Amino acid sequence: MMHVGVAAVLYEQDELARALEHATEGLAGCRQLARRWLITSSRPLAEGLVVLARIRLALGDRASAGAAVGEAEQAGPSPDVVDLFNPAGAERMRLLLALGQLAEAAGWAAARGLDPGDQPGYPREREYLLLARLLIAQGEPAGALPLLGRLHAAAAAQGRTGSLVEIGAVTAAARAACGQEAGAVTALAGALALAWPEGYLRVFADEGAPLAAVLDRLIAGQRGGRMPVAPGVPLAYLRRLQAAFRPCEAGTVPPQPIRAAEVAAPALAEPLTGRELQVLALLAAGISNQEIAGELVVALETVKKHVSHILGKLGAANRTQAVARARALGLLR
């Protein structure tokens, strides 16, 4: 289960290649334990398969995602078990929505007794968020907003940050579908303020193109200074979030972020730190020191020191040489 948990975190951070490795290893262990103890119903195995299904879906492999969901439904507890302890059913609903099979999704919601007028508790929050997504997909986003408001109020009262992030993402999508552009940007900005320190990405990217359009408007406002609705959220994080929205081709694994421990290239006497890699990427984008300071929320002098260290470690006389040498060493993608 440790590997499954790590896979879930890596998935949320959009590190899909590493997430797939951990999920595969964790599932192998779960299956081995189930066979050894002759277990026919295994919640850990079902939860691991749900994580695998999400990774496969993000990679564009819908067939493998469907197979993982099917196995999770067979391996997990009875469908009557509350969603909090049996995520396979909700993952089936998520897959149906991704495939555009709205009639089947609506049938699932009806079978679960979900109604937009309900006052849902935390154990069934995931199901009701899927109901809100279904309403949006059916062209009834206005019907989802009161439900989302109740979900948000309950999560806020209990201090559940992860829930607030996801509810905020779905609310932004619903408001965008209602034509409430300013409200959509405000809802997304509130969720991002909670999300970026922890590196949440997939919770937004999984909402698809409509939310990507809201993000684009937010970034345009931030950069132009016309609509600074998300103060303190670094543009570097927003750019990475934009990248997470780009769909993967089936069977491929997208490039993963470079870590400081991975960049001790043979030609470097001293590896770049994680922060220096961030600054280097922004240098490659042609951003000024002042803009970098704003994005990373640090002092201008701090940025200048990072640039000086980067030039020294790469043996470069200026930014252009530093970027060229970094590309040759594989430090930029």
Jot down its keywords:
single chain, 17 helices, mainly alpha, Arc Repressor Mutant, subunit A, 3 domains, Serine Threonine Protein Phosphatase 5, Tetratricopeptide repeat, globular, 333 residues
Descriptive report:
The longest helix is centred in the first third of the chain and has 21 residues, at 16-36. The chain is mainly alpha-helical and 333 residues long. The two termini are 33 Å apart. It is globular and about 65 Å long. It has 17 helices and no strands. The chain has three domains: 1-100, Serine Threonine Protein Phosphatase 5, Tetratricopeptide repeat (Alpha Horseshoe), CATH 1.25.40; 122-247, Serine Threonine Protein Phosphatase 5, Tetratricopeptide repeat (Alpha Horseshoe), CATH 1.25.40; 260-328, Arc Repressor Mutant, subunit A, CATH 1.10.10.10. Mean pLDDT is 85; it is low at 255-266.
Distance between the termini: 33 Å
Give the second-level CATH assignment, the architecture of the largest domain: Alpha Horseshoe
CATH hierarchy class name of the largest domain: Mainly Alpha
SSE class: mainly alpha
Helix content: 55-70%
How many domains, as an integer?
A: 3
The CATH topology assignment of the largest domain is: Serine Threonine Protein Phosphatase 5, Tetratricopeptide repeat
Largest sheet: none
Mean pLDDT: 85
Alpha carbon gyration radius:
22 Å
Number of strands: 0
Classify the beta-strand content into a percent band. Answer: under 5%
Q: Regions with pLDDT < 50 over 5+ consecutive residues?
A: 255-266
Shape, principal axes of CA atoms = globular
Given the structure, what is the number of helices?
A: 17
Helix and strand element order: HHHHHHHHHHHHHHHHH
